[in-house]
């Protein structure tokens, strides 16, 4: 039986094209995929015939729904954290490569984009959302935290939108992605193939994208922008919760939204929520390399902790949606324990020299 490769590579015209090819698994990112994408990108960086990179995916449902956390869960339960940390290390190195790539890097995102999919696309030059674009960073639901460079990207989004997305794990679609800056362009799904061909043909990448871009319509988060900025600025968990409680006492749409968010945050891993808050505070002072180094320190601790395995069990294995977090309550979290997640580790994340 012939096994389909998990990633397809093609040089067409002036473009090097990377196609994620695990549609039945929602193109979830594996270590094997990371290990073939990285060297191919480095080779194309020095190939004069390739003037731009296009990243896309097979299937209409998902661009990349995240990393293969079930595999990481299995490794951790077997006491093989070193192997799971090897995946995270290599993934973060690839994230950094994309963020420092010397040629235009264009992601065509027409489907679910979460976790690892965010890491593959968010740091590139251009992020193009189709009609099926669906973004979230829901890691706090599974005892993880919004990694793969979320520390760098999310706190830089306007009006505390990134803090809101990190804390809530809520999903947004194309218009909101464009509104908050996660997307650089919106293109109808029906126009993605034509855009790809135009990019392959050469010419100025920015001009080609502008020609094919379309208005995705009103952004629901735009109406919530003042609320989100007021509640989530500062990224302190206790302060955010107090502000939500005050809003929840109000009548109308803001009160409803506050009560919905307050209930949702109570269900997250308390440790994860506090780690996310620490990320949002530290992130503005860190470049991408510094952010990824900080995340690797934190994920090293999480991989040897409990909540990640309990969260994956509840969400993806037993699917009872009843995680038993440790500690169980938001006010049981010791700030010193959270800060220690970001302390130096013996085997720090390092980055190879960038391609010329």
Automatic annotation (TrEMBL):
It holds the Pfam family ECH_2. It comes from the Bacteria. Residues 16-342 form the Enoyl-CoA hydratase/isomerase domain. It catalyses: 3-hydroxy-2-methylpropanoyl-CoA + H2O = 3-hydroxy-2-methylpropanoate + CoA + H(+). One of its GO terms (biological process) is L-valine catabolic process. The keyword Hydrolase applies. One of its GO terms (molecular function) is 3-hydroxyisobutyryl-CoA hydrolase activity. Its EC number is 3.1.2.4. Keywords: Hydrolase. Gene3D superfamilies: 2-enoyl-CoA Hydratase, Chain A, domain 1. NCBIfam families: PRK05617.1. This is 3-hydroxyisobutyryl-CoA hydrolase. It comes from Azorhizobium oxalatiphilum. The lineage of its organism: Bacteria, Pseudomonadati, Pseudomonadota, Alphaproteobacteria, Hyphomicrobiales.
């Amino acid at each position: 039986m012939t096994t389909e490769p998990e990633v397809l590579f093609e040089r067409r015209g002036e473009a090097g094209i990377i196609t994620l090819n695990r549609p039945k698994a929602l193109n979830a990112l594996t270590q094997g995929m990371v290990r073939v994408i990285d060297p191919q990108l480095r080779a194309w960086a020095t190939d004069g015939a390739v003037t731009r990179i296009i990243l896309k995916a097979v299937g209409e449902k998902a661009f990349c729904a995240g990393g293969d956390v079930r595999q990481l869960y299995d490794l951790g339960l077997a006491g093989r954290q070193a192997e799971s940390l090897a995946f995270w290390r290599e993934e973060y190195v690839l994230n950094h490569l994309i963020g420092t790539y010397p040629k235009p890097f264009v992601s065509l995102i027409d489907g679910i984009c979460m976790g690892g999919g965010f890491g593959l696309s968010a740091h590139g030059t251009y992020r193009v959302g189709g009609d099926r674009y669906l973004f979230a960073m829901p890691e706090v639901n599974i005892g993880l935290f919004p990694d793969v460079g979320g520390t760098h990207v999310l706190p830089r989004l306007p009006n505390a939108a990134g803090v809101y997305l990190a804390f809530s794990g809520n999903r947004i679609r194309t218009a909101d992605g464009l509104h908050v800056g996660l997307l650089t362009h919106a293109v109808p799904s029906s126009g993605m193939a034509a855009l790809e061909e135009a990019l392959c043909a050469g010419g100025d990448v920015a001009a080609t994208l502008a020609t094919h871009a379309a208005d995705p319509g009103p952004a629901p988060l735009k109406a919530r922008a003042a609320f989100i900025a007021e509640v989530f600025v500062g990224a302190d968990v206790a302060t955010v919760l107090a502000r939500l409680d005050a809003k929840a006492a109000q009548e109308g749409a803001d009160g409803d939204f506050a009560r919905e968010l307050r209930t949702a945050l109570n269900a997250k891993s308390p440790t994860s929520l506090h780690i996310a808050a620490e990320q949002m505070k530290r992130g503005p002072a860190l470049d991408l390399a510094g952010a990824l180094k900080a995340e690797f320190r934190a994920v090293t601790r999480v991989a040897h902790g409990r909540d990640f395995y309990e969260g994956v069990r509840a969400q993806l294995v037993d699917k009872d949606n009843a995680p038993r977090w440790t500690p169980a309550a938001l006010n049981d979290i010791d700030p010193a324990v959270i800060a220690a997640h970001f302390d130096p580790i013996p085997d720090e994340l390092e980055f190879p020299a960038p391609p010329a």
